[in-house]
Amino acid sequence: MQIMGVIAVIVTLVLVAYGLTSQIYRNYKNKNTRGLSLSFFFLGFMSWCVWSIYGWMRGDFFIGFAQTVGGAMNAVILLQFWLYRKK
């Protein structure tokens, strides 16, 4: 069971390190979030947060840590929606 936790953390952190960071960089470079769904990222953020809370409440480092990192990166994308909104 412990090995599955390690695998889950690795896969989640690869998603965060590659997927979300590349999206953050693309948004930063283009100074817009055109083509992205705000509702998708908002619901994703909520999911990361709830899983993070669940993991920490259970005392499960694997779930808590990976989900907290993902939630933080998703929060950056939500911040970019606000920063790059049309004025």
From TrEMBL:
Keywords: Membrane, Transmembrane, Transmembrane helix. One of its GO terms (cellular component) is membrane. InterPro entries: SWEET_rpt. It comes from Candidatus Harrisonbacteria bacterium RIFCSPLOWO2_01_FULL_44_18. Coiled coil: none annotated. Gene3D superfamilies: 1.20.1280.290. The chain crosses the membrane at residues 6-25, 37-56, 62-84. The keyword Transmembrane helix applies. This is MtN3 and saliva related transmembrane protein. It comes from the Bacteria.
